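Attaching the record inline, Q. Sequence:
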Amino acid sequence: MRYVAALACWLVGSAAFAQAYAPPRAPDGKPDLGGVWTNATNAPLERPDGVPLVISREQSAHFDVQTVNGELRTSLIVDPPDGKLPLRDRASAMAWRERYGVYMLGAPQPDFTAGPDTLPNRDRCLMAANAAAPPMTSQGYNDAYEIVQTPSYVLIAVEMMDDTRIIPLFASAAEAMKAHRPKALARWVGDSVGWWEGDTFVVETENVDQRQGSQSPMPTSPGATWTERFTRISDGELLYQVEVNDPALYTRPWKTESSFRPARRIWEYACHEGNYGMAGILSGQRKVERDGVRKKKPAKR
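Structure, as predicted:
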């Protein structure tokens, strides 16, 4: 019952935002989400222990915050109330994130550098965590998104690593959910279908490639489902709400909220890690291995 009540409040809150503001309309009468937006923020995914979600401006000097609908918030997660990922096994689920952090600090990771295919996604210019795959989150730079909207599709071009989401639109949630592609066709950003609920654009995504799901700060299993809601609540703010359902890894559904704000343009993302960094990382590891072999050889007399 507690979850049902929380979900009801979440949905009612979205409707209230839409009713309080009259958004510009596309030719088909739907709210116009088109344009270039940014979700840049330093607010963390999870909150520190004992820290409230909403704080005062005086308190904000002590935290990295984001502003959502006029509120200063200390995390992207809004539910559960403690602001934590409700992982069934936190140590195991977060092992890759901790290990990648150590790798980024330069600690040896032989299996990461055995060859081109073993390097993490970011080093191979394939996928930057959750820049494109839901929930779409700030990466610290190149946080722009261009939305192109038609009566049949919504396209989201992602500045970070040049990903693109093409979301077909349907007349209802029921029709959209029947249109998912076969499970065998896993994609980096998942299989997304969309529909309108009043002035809110809703997207359901499933079947995210596990090479993405397993290397995310918020790991997911093959059976995970994401429900995204885009609601334009002012001329300068697009409310972005996401619910994640993944019973294999989490004890309950969890939700994030953030805001997209107008940006000037999308810039080219020229990912040179794949051109220079990857070659440097691999050649450096081969040198470490050669030096190790030399040290083991007995000294000549």
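Residues 126 and 169 are 27 Å apart (CA to CA). The radius of gyration is 21 Å.

More tomorrow.
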